[in-house]
Amino acid sequence: MFFTVINIHHHRNNLKHLDEILLEAVFKSQVRHHQAHQMKKDLMLTLDWNCPHMTMTKVFSKDFAQQYLVDREEFEYALLRPKREEFLHIFLNRGFQIHKYLAPKRLRQLFAKIQHEEFFRSVCWEGALGHSL
Length: 133
Hints:
Blueprint: H1 18-29, H2 35-48, H3 52-59, H4 72-80, H5 85-93, H6 98-101, H7 104-113, H8 117-128
């Protein structure tokens, strides 16, 4: 069985946004499960594909009352992945409380985990926390 997600030969299809087109197809094909569980799966998928726009339009748009709270695992996943700064801004704007997350012990753990020290310094330390070295 075959199905067409996108006709690459059609003049209106822009393959520059292929990631969003494929995510859109995935979201449309899903069988809905428990709301919070499904939102977490969808959020992690958009994080993996680095599509913050899809997070806002397809994941958080379903949460009218803003009851879904980003957890520590999701925040840390975005924090440790390269080029996920926009996700961090989204999470902070949705009420993630960084002061409860970033205890001294966790800060040491993050430094130990971080792949690129420059990323951590510029994004986390200076960008999110407003500190300078």
